[in-house]
Design a protein that fits this description.
With about 400 residues, the chain is of the alpha/beta class. It is built from 11 helices and 17 strands. Strands 7-6-5-8-13-10-14-16-17 form a 9-stranded mixed sheet, sandwiched between helices. Strands 1, 2, 3 and 4 form a 4-stranded mixed sheet that branches. The longest helix is centred in the first third of the chain and has 44 residues, at about 5-45. It starts with a helix and ends in a 9-residue tail after the last strand.
Length: about 400
């Protein structure tokens, strides 16, 4: 090759490199700027308790964190059909909006909700028994999820070091972790496959092991199921958590005391963090990378990918109480663990030129559909999205 040609080719390569580098740098600057804006928003939400009580009450009501005392106890019926026979009528729902579309099931027109599966939701989590430093937290989770049976079928994935006796006595199903990856952490998609192949439910979901729920999870899923927006193979329900530090045994003891603790001293967390993912029964996880739980970034990919596919994604933060019980103030532990960037590397590999992914498109505030209490009934509403949420 002649020197002039060599110089020409080198110049082209260098120029292309500069263009790509500049583009990626500008993208990163824009992303970091957006993160700063979101951090300001999240800071305001997390510190809402500095507001006067009147505004605070309004905020909590909008977030679905408090309900009228008369609605704390459940007063409507939910009937399940198991293997062709009827299970006893359960007093498990606060109320059902009889104005929702009920063409799927004739019984709904009579105020009875019937599902042809043994459970409405099979919900799983996982933890290791080796030096379980979160034993108290996990004990609360075992007891909390068991309260939601039979509408919720709780499943625990464990390693060889965990004694599952307590979980099984409380009615949990237990399985060995089917596949592990970096640092021995479980691969999410393989656990989804196990529960889908093993249990028959209307919904299947995963939640972090330190998340507590109340009956408004069941209530919300019932409304999602009967809404015209619902789809058997494209629906994803997710949402933000509310942090509550040093939850006491007394606060935990009943649904009423738990809701009260959340409403009085809970702090709604960031839009960038989702802690539960509930899918309709026929949803496909085939394109999910081998993300592991316990590390950052997989939550944003799950939401972003579903939004990009134009699936039916719903932010349930305002109607589902997801109480994150912890013994310390939030310290972003998952950001500083060994190999914390593992999921982010998988995420980047799916991006053209391996650029930094647009994580913000997977935040809850970028989900256009959301649930909300309206006149003590749950509705699915729409919000207008702007940059950086748009594709």
């Amino acid at each position: 090759m002649s020197p002039p040609k060599l110089v020409f080719y080198v110049t082209v390569v260098v120029f292309a490199g500069v263009v790509i580098f500049t583009r990626d740098l500008l993208y990163l600057v824009r992303t970091e700027t957006r993160y700063g804006q979101l951090d300001q928003y999240d800071h305001a939400v997390r510190n809402k308790h500095h507001m006067d009580q009147a505004n605070l009450k309004i905020l909590r009501a909008k977030a679905g964190l408090v309900h009228d005392e008369n609605n704390i106890e459940l007063n409507l019926t939910l009937r399940f059909q198991v293997n062709g026979g009827e299970n006893e009528v359960r007093q498990k729902l606060k109320y059902v909006d009889k104005t929702v579309k009920t063409s799927k099931k004739e019984a709904a027109s009579q105020g009875e909700i019937t599902f042809e599966t043994p459970s409405l939701l099979t919900l799983f989590t996982t933890w290791s028994g080796k030096g379980d430093v979160n034993a108290r937290t996990h004990n609360f989770t075992l007891r909390n999820w068991a309260r939601l049976k039979p509408e919720v079928n709780p499943v625990l994935f464990i390693d060889d070091g965990y004694d599952a006796t307590v979980a099984q006595r409380l009615g949990w199903k237990t399985h060995r972790i089917p596949k592990s990856s970096i640092n021995g952490l479980p691969v999410l998609k393989d656990m989804f496959k196990v529960i889908k192949d093993t249990y028959k439910s209307t919904f299947y979901g995963y939640a972090n092991s330190d998340i507590l729920f109340t009956s408004n999870l069941v209530e919300t899923l019932v409304h999602v199921y009967y809404d015209s927006f619902y789809s058997d193979n494209t629906t994803l329900v997710t949402g933000m958590r509310t942090n509550i530090v040093n939850l006491t045994e007394e606060e935990f003891s009943t649904q009423t005391t738990l809701l009260n603790a959340v409403s009085t001293r809970g702090q709604l967390y960031m839009t960038s963090a989702e802690d539960y993912f509930i899918y309709a029964a026929e949803y496909s996880w085939s394109d999910m990378p081998e993300f592991v739980v316990g590390l950052i970034a997989y939550d944003n990919w799950l939401v972003l990918n579903s939004r990009y596919r134009e699936d039916h994604v719903i932010d349930a933060s305002r109607t589902v109480t997801a109480a994150h019980h912890t013994v310390r103030e939030p310290d972003y532990q998952s950001h500083f663990r060994e190999n914390a960037q593992y999921n982010k590397v998988l995420f980047r590999k799916m991006m053209q030129f391996h650029v930094e992914p647009p994580y913000e498109k997977g935040f809850t505030n970028c989900i256009d559909k959301y649930t909300e209490f309206v006149d003590k009934k749950i509705e699915i509403r729409s919000r207008k999205l702007e940059d950086p949420c748009l594709f």
